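hiii, so i know i said id send this last week but things got crazy w the move. better late than never?? heres the sequnce for the chain we talked about at the cafe, plus the structure i predicted for it. fair warning i was half asleep when i ran it
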Amino acid sequence: MSKKSILIRYVRRLLAGTLTLTGVLLPVASAAAESGAAGANRGDTAPRIFQGRGFDTCQAPDLATMRAWRASSAYRAVGIYFGGRARACKSQLHLTADWVRQTTDAGWSLLPIYVGSQSPCVSGSNKNPYRIDPAQAATQGGTEGEDAVSSADALGLGRGSALYLDMESYNIGDSDCADATLTFVRGWDRQVRAAGYLAGFYSSADSGIKHIETARRAGVADLPDVVWYARWGVSATLTDEPALSDDAWASHARIHQYTGSVTESYGGKKLSIDRDLIDAPVAVVG
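okay and structure toks below
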């Protein structure tokens, strides 16, 4: 391992161990890209990097809950499901441009999540109606990338924001299915980047993330700028993920969802959440 890789690994371990109570939003100038996150400074607006603890929940909480959690919890970032035809909570009662402005003004960092078409061999039966058409995978990815940009812009999520494509667990051993899925993802990435946004990718560590890492090693183009991997039941880590090489997405380009479907309450406001450890780009608002 090179000295540079060792240094990066050491710093990431240090951050993961010390940022357990609060999040730190780095200045824009510190968000320099390195190999494995080649798009991390695309466009006219440099990304905003958040480091610390966050959570995601299906329905964007009301502002009173966000205020209570900001005052009493250790979380400083929240995932918001802002679009996509396979989104579970399609009716977002509170998620508006005003909600985005007020939460960010209050000190929250936002992780915009887009749940579009799913892999043709998706594991969850609830996602079966929303599968990618293998014959139209590239076009479909581009069209949904355009929709993601439009939906983000309507909420005030500006250029330089990372938009995270949610691809639920799928059978990467099915080569035809895996190829169609990757083609869709690359089409989505290209469209999102063309509009000045960063292309993020969420999936289970042992399916989508492993697949994307295999593609990276093979030199495939148009891969995500940042990865968000789900591996539950382990300690939160941004360095020791078995599906990723040490130098893969190694510069402010990883999120670990390490626990799912837990209930927490702060300030008298209860939510069911997934827990995340973050060193990655967030939304640019204002």
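btw The mean pLDDT is 88. thought thatd interest u
miss u guys!!
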